[in-house]
Amino acid sequence: MSTLQREAVAETVFDAVAETTAGIRDGLRGRRESVDSENASGEAQLAADVWADDVLADRITDVEGVGQFVSEERDDVTDCGQGLSVALDPLDGSSNLESNNLIGTIVAVYDGDLPAKGRDLAAAAYVVYGPITTMVAAVDDSVTEYEIVDGERRPIESDVTLGDDPTVYGFGGRVPDWTPEFENYAEDIESELKLRYGGALVGDVNQVMGYGGVFCYPALQSRSEGKLRLQFEGNPIAYIVEAAGGRSSDGEQSLLDVEPTRIHQRVPVHVGNANLIDRLEAELD
Ligand code: F6P
Asked: How many CA atoms lie within 13 A of 63 on its CB side?
């Protein structure tokens, strides 16, 4: 597939996601309770997780040029034709639904079979269900922010870059579970930047995109692979942050260079302004 064809398929996938957003926002009401099931990573599912996954899967597997589909809520990859592979986090941060806080959707479009490497991403995007619904999409190294109105993407900022005067940080995991090396890094950052942590990756990263700063869900003492998933969260978020001029790291290298071994593989995630990620890698070394 040529670069132009890849971009066209990715834009069609993002349009399909945008078209679902109003319905998804409406459908969250009445679906905030748990159902008696777990996703492939062993996390309890809410009715909204299962339902949004079905809505999005129906739309995306119908897109011409999409060959494989998988989501954080599904055990296995679905083959649906010839072409690019889509990995989706349908409701990122859905544990925030109970407290009526921010959630989102993350979309990764890979040119390769799943599980794929971050370097094989053709494009990536995330939707923020905040006071208004927005999408931030990276295609061909260029990042655009859209408002979604009546199911359509309306560009509000093109060539988005990370704020160059870093202001905010958000670090996941319980402090006693951090490694001593990460704790040292956190102590430095806490004295320089302002804490902003909401518990939904899209929201926390979107603040770093807007203000500049750093988001980390690091390796924990109890779980060295961290919490976030490489295919659905680490790779697409890294792709967007890097396209916006920032850096990503698993602690040693760009997340985009991490070898994929399985669909639901977890990875420590650190993204933000380049100098802040350089300092993190030096501290963890
Ligand atoms: O993976 C789901 C997720 O909700 C992310 O969106 C978020 O960054 C993280 O988990 C929050 O985890 P915690 O509840 O441990 O802060």
From this structure: 26
